[in-house]
Amino acid sequence: MTEAQFPGPAWQDFERDWQAFEQAHVWHPYAPMFGADAPYPVASAEGVRLKLEDGRELIDGMASWWSVIHGYNHPRLNQALSDQMQQMSHVMFGGLTHKPAAGLAARLIDLTPEPLKHVFFCDSGSVAAEVAIKMALQFWQAQARPEKHRLLTIRHGYHGDTFGAMAVCDPVSGMHHMFSAVLPKHLFAEAPTAKVDADWNESQIADFSRLIKTHAHEIAAVILEPIVQGAGGMRIYCPEFLRQVRGLCDAHDVLLICDEIATGFGRTGRMFACEHAGISPDVMCLGKALTGGVMSMAATLATSKVCEGIHADGKGVLMHGPTFMANPLACAVASASIDLLLESDWQKRVLAIESQLKDELIPCAALPQVADVRVIGAIGVVEMVEAVDVAEMQERFVDRGVWLRPFGKLVYIMPPYVIEPDELSQLTTAMCDMAKRR
Ligand SMILES: Cc1ncc(COP(=O)(O)O)c(C=O)c1O
Fold first, then answer.
1. Ligand 1 — pocket residues by CB below 6 A?
2. Ligand 1 centre and the CA of 39: distance in Å?
3. 10-residue stretch averages of pLDDT, the chain, 438 residues long
4. Residue 412 designated active-site
């Protein structure tokens, strides 16, 4: 578009200085419209490197919020998109269907633990969590038990930014407490502190157990992130907690929703984090790495028991239907991403990343300014004693040629699985040096 074709004042500002224009008019995540720190403009991305407009290259330790597991600009994923584009980029999913959706559903059903058998495609992780919650509510309504409409979760969780999802994020330390007056009131149990089964004792589950026993008559489902709690604090907890939660849900007639949006597709060293505990949920949310980070897509999977339960009202109509549901491009690239993952030696790679992260980050734990260091799979976290100055730290990271985005007290890394050991070392060295400087 040229100025002659589009002679509006905004366009003129854009042509004069697109970065200044963008900063004045476009919101960024969790940021003010005015006075936010200038974001770094990216021109392109390739493999594990982001290329900035000014020519600098950054090794990416964030995998674009944990989604880009195969690296950027992957030829296989690009090919899948371009092949699908020749057929159709999008058609509505109401009354129509297509092979890319069916093919992706088949892959997901085979990949996820038994007995998840039914797939709802949607467009983001938050919406996948909303759909999971709706499934649970509709399940109990169809059983003529509408009083079972509350959710039980654990503290420090994060499930997204939409209202249903916000209502099960940590109400105190989470980022949504400003909305608490308008959110439904759910139940929050203390999160476990034991990171490994060796540290397990019954006190870890006591609060959860008390809440589920006392409120089972009004609880539709438990929702939690299995093994790793992400944006609510980057916490790792022991598999035994999850096993006990599964047992308590069964004993008290409560559904279990596992939000694997951050943990799914190998991030913790298992294909899905609930495999660490050998359990399977009634409903599972997937997103982020589902498309290899190429497109926005998420999915909510349910067991036949859940679907049949929803059908007990005689209709079984699940009341959700986004415009871009099962977008064919997203389905095609998600299938290609899963195939790529399965053909790769992903587990070896993730375990190698885990062992390198342990070797290179754990020494930071000795620093007085570091509260904790934790590693699982391709996730490494350095928790500082004090909150960090994100903008300042980010500038230093960028000067060193690495991309990491800390939050609160947490300086963490979740790189693409294809990262090479020397690239990973550059990231961990930058993290440790930052920790030492503080
Ligand atoms: C566990 C979990 N659930 C849900 C979400 C929300 O996903 P989205 O940002 O795609 O809406 C996230 C995002 O960080 C997440 O980590």
1. 124-126, 129, 158-160, 225, 230-231, 259, 261-262, 287
2. 21
3. 73 95 96 93 98 98 98 98 98 98 98 97 98 98 98 97 96 82 96 96 97 98 98 97 98 98 98 98 98 98 98 95 98 98 98 98 96 98 96 95 96 98 98 89
4. no
Instruction: Ligand 1, residue 165: give the atom nearest the CA.
Output: 4
Q: Is 158 noted as a catalytic residue in this protein?
A: yes
Residue 420, Cβ density class (10 Å: 0-12 exposed, 13-18 middle, ≥19 buried):
exposed
**Closest residue by CA, ligand 1 atom 5:** 160
- Using alpha carbons, list the distances in angstroms from residue 194 to 191, 222, 264, 328: 9, 20, 22, 42
Q: How far is the CA of 54 from the centre of ligand 1 (A)?
A: 31
Whether 99 is a known active-site residue: answer no
Nearest CA to ligand 1 atom 7: 125
Expressed in angstroms and rounded, the spacing between residue 408 Cα and the centre of ligand 1 is: 18
Q: Which atom of ligand 1 is nearest to the CA of 126?
A: 11
Phi, psi of 408 (to 5 degrees): 55, -125
What is the rounded CA–CA span in Å between residue 103 and residue 94?
A: 18
DSSP lists the bridge partners of residue 198 as: none
